[in-house]
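Anyone able to model this chain together with 16G?
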Amino acid sequence: MDFGAITKHSVLHAKPSGLLFQYGTAGFRMKAEHLDHIMFRMGLLAVLRSKQTKSTIGVMVTASHNPEEDNGVKLVDPLGEMLAPSWEEYATCLANAEEEDMQRVLIDISEKEAVDLQQDAFVVIGRDTRPSSEKLSQSVIDGVTVLGGQFHDYGLLTTPQLHYMVCCRNTSGLYGMATIEGYYQKLSKAFVELTKQASRSGDEFRSLKVDCANGIGALKLKEMEHYLSQGLSVQLFNDGTKGKLNHLCGADFVKSHQKPPQGMEIKSNERCCSFDGDADRIVYYYCDADGHFHLIDGDKIATLISSFLKELLVEIGENLNVGVVQTAYANGNSTRYLEEVMKVPVYCTKTGVKHLHHKAQEFDIGVYFEANGHGTALFSKAVEDKVKQLAGELEDKKGKAAKILRNIIDLFNQAAGDAIADMLVIEAILALKSLTVQQWDALYTDLPNRQLKVKVADRKVISTTDAERQAVTPPGLQEAINDLVKKYRLSRAFVRPSGTEDVIRVYAEADSQESADSLAHEVSLAVFQLAGGIGERPQPGF
Ligand code: 16G
Ligand code: MG
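re: yes, here you go
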């Protein structure tokens, strides 16, 4: 390492004083103006990680659904996964190091991880459409080059597209071509083949309205549109030409406000979906003939996908298992439907894609979704091999099911949850099963629920267990929650410190909206009293 050069460049990316930085569930995320030094240092870290794994590493500059003024960065590991936990700690350490400690921290990481500094390094970089993203990605490049790494800057990409590129580059092209055309071709080929097998036709089924959150998803869907022409016609809204990124639109807005985005006109029973700002989340919705809004969130997406995959496996007749992974936020009725009606085993993990992803790898087919719309399906090597063999050999029903499954496997971006890939899978399944959006929605009815935030002096005073469903500390809080839950029917509630905001999150569900609202409020009061609430006491009403 040329420490003279590192220092020379590092002082040009000075760390602001008085701030603490933490590599959280979604990497670093904050006001864009505080991020320059972090970008430079993540460039350095990506080079070390690349040398250590002898693989290409990705760096994505985005703050997803956060406001336009924010930005963020996360590293992508060799197979397109999230960064390994021990390296998250190095990232935090490096981000907080004072200028004079940089050398020591870099040597420390290299020694602990036995990094061969002579090894070549390659880093690929992507960014979203935020005004600050271009300059910040230049700072990443500065960090990469000063440590002698090679790089390829893909420029504007969705987060899942960058994961895809990393995965392609580290699997010698087996996963696909590491270009944007390669991505479009892989997905659209699988999609078009699937829709050819669908019996139904007509515009009603082919057209979909997409709210792009005024983000990168709009640019990429526009580029992709003509590849899909035979199977799907998308109408884009909030495409970034007028509105502000994530403002009153996008998947996060629609899910948390349970209402349609601004800037989209919805006629009754039209099928609509929303992406978030970096296109790794998707939710569907429609308005019925009475104008009522119906949200189809990640839980219902998981239900549609896992039921369909299970049917295919039954056709194929192999002894392969399907499992669904959710978090505590999954609606109780979705879990009940999956377990009791679909007879699919369901597992619950902590919030955050990496936890779900990890658990889903345990199954032949692991479908994971957070209620907020992050998710995908993972397929074991055994499934891929079996399906390829059957699809090539057989022309009967079993062969047909295998062909469908082979295309579904190609269509999912298994490197990461991907709004574009998920959308195409969903559209293909609806077409193949001749399901309308209303029929899909009617699989089960969501239990009314409410999410609230409570501000406390130190959110670390709340610790949880059982996949965040039980509070361990502070003493007495879980008992208080248990007593409150008993007052309502079909009720459930839990609290957890947020990983992305300085708040405690409260979730409650019950048999009616009034009960869910009231339970959420009572639990918020318990948190406020027992966990050191600050500011105004939580008030009833929303
Ligand atoms: C991050 C996570 C998301 C999770 C959310 C929870 C990734 C890529 N993103 O956005 O999965 O749902 O955090 O936020 O892992 P919270 O901790 O503030 O509730
Ligand atoms: Mg996102």
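The first strand starts at residue 28 and ends at 31.
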